[in-house]
Amino acid sequence: xxxxxxxxxxxxxxxxxxxxxxxxxxxxxxxxxPSDVSSAEKLIIxxxxxxxHCLSQLSKAGYVEPVQAHIAAGKPFMGICVGLxxxxxxxxxxxxxxxxxxxxxxxxxxxDGDKSVPHIGWNSANTSGKGEVAEQSLFGLxxxxxxxxxxxxxxxxxxxxxxxxxxxxATARYGNEEFVGAVAKDNIFATQxxxxxxxxxxxxxxxxxxxxxxxxxxxxxxxxxxxREGLTRRIIACLDVRTNDQGxxxxxxxxxxxxxxxxGVSSGGAVRNLGKPVDMxxxxxxxxxxxxxxxxxxxxRNCPVADTPMLEILRRTSESVxxxxxxxxxxxxxxxxxxSNISALEIATMYFKSGxxxxxxxxxxxxxxxxxxxxxKQLSGKTAIELISAAYGNQAVVISVDPRxxxxxxxxxxxxxxxKTSKPGPNSEEYCWYQCTIKGGREGRDFDVRQLVQAVEAMxxxxxxxxxxxKDGSNSxxxxxxxxxxxxxxxxPVIASSGAGHPGHFAEVFEKTxxxxxxxxxxxxxxxxxxxxxxxxxxxxxQLVRRFEE
Length: 550
Ligand code: 1PR
Prior knowledge:
Layout: E1 3-6, H1 15-23, E2 27-30, H2 34-39, E3 43-45, H3 51-60, H4 64-72, E4 77-80, H5 82-85, E5 88-91, E6 103-109, E7 119-123, E8 136-138, E9 147-151, E10 153-154, E11 168-174, E12 177-185, E13 188-191, H6 199-211, E14 215-217, E15 234-243, E16 249-252, H7 277-287, E17 291-296, H8 309-320, E18 325-328, E19 334-335, E20 341-342, H9 344-354, E21 358-361, H10 363-374, H11 384-392, E22 397-401, E23 403-408, E24 419-420, E25 431-438, E26 443-448, H12 449-459, E27 463-466, H13 480-489, E28 494-496, H14 503-512, E29 517-520, H15 522-525, H16 531-540
Parallel strand pairs: 1-2, 1-3, 3-4, 4-13, 5-6, 15-17, 15-29, 17-18, 18-21, 21-22, 22-27, 27-28, 28-29
Antiparallel strand pairs: 6-10, 7-9, 8-14, 11-12, 12-13, 15-16, 19-20, 23-25, 24-25, 25-26
The structure holds ligand 1PR.
Ligand 1PR binds near residues 362, 467, 498 and 522.
């Protein structure tokens, strides 16, 4: 098999990129020292995380000059995400750090005045410019395809500016900002999005680069509807995984977090078994899920951390599922079975190396947020959130929130932030607050969701997975009041979760709140609806979705 050299400066999930490269018929050789760069014919620099971290790692290890020489020699070079950003002169993210300076522009942070930052999800990489449809595709990019982006900084697009220097540009639009989604010139190609996480559309782009096909004639011209720009509605399939009473790893699903079969009125039967995690993840990928989330809901006690079955699930899933994978459950400082201490960062690292793109933290985030307030809102720099986001970027850290409604007759009955609810409580209470819980809802804290999400945002979390115990498994729709309240409190993206029972609930949550993504579990697992049906419904309602490509 032909080879491609990959330069990994410890930037996150490179396993997916290796899997994607192998899928399109190439093998990876690792660049282990600067001298390996000169023997590379094709070179890829992937990347997530901070601009400064990437450039300083490259510079410390002596890679800057060999990479510049590789590019100057006219050999094929591809940069992905921060690997694209490295080509620029500099970035607002780390103003004192110099980029490679191949592209005479600086990167800027997205304006969070009118939208969530980071920009996470599926967006265009359109070469058509000003609404005209190009006849040639650039490295397999298509105006009607969507690609997975995750970043806070981008190169603003100003028409003609880079083109006059000979660059070909593909753009995307986020809110009212147009930015560079991909650039190409001679032997250089770079994408702000992650081709290895962009399904078949992304694999096509990787293959085109590796085969050296800079442009192809488009087979047919897409319709104006298909080339609509902007971030699509993101649909996530969530798999709660645990061992059942026979010791098998199964996907399960609770009602208000109770995953045992109900025997008449009381629960306490066997753990519901809805299928095998890897098979189900693959099925949802093929139905068009934009992301797959695994929650290890029992943390698999009695097993050395390095052998946790979730690592194997991720490895196997990432071989055939080319969309982002999130893993949650048990991400905290831990004492292993042999008595050794393992930090949350080390656990996260194992997950990233096994194919995860994001880790999701539940209970540990609540404890850390409580301490943050106890210390007068001082960041300690030592929490799992801070350490993981410093190493892998904040987009890699999701906080899973498990709130429960507490009704009160009047806001003065509690010190917590309340909302006036349109669904009064059992004693006709008109107000409620959302209590944070830990340990899968088993323990309620004197701490509200607003306090939690604001604290974790300050600590560097990149996204909130907003569950709701009252709604979980109810098939009665999302808790719109909770979602609106959380969206108002923070700038980072929010994933609405709990309660989806049919496609109309997804349309409703996108119409009536500003949620950034929506997640479903039970309705997909029970085979009542497919992800494809949800997307078709959203499209019928005029909402922009990514269509699945073979
Ligand atoms: O605390 O960091 O170890 O993480 C534990 C993780 O496991 C948390 O993310 C927590 O939400 C999750 N978890 C713990 N116990 C349960 C349980 O069900 N007994 N599952 C549990 C939470 C909730 C959602 C679910 C949606 C959608 N699952 O992810 O998928 O509610 O369901 P629906 O569409 O069927 O209504 P830590």
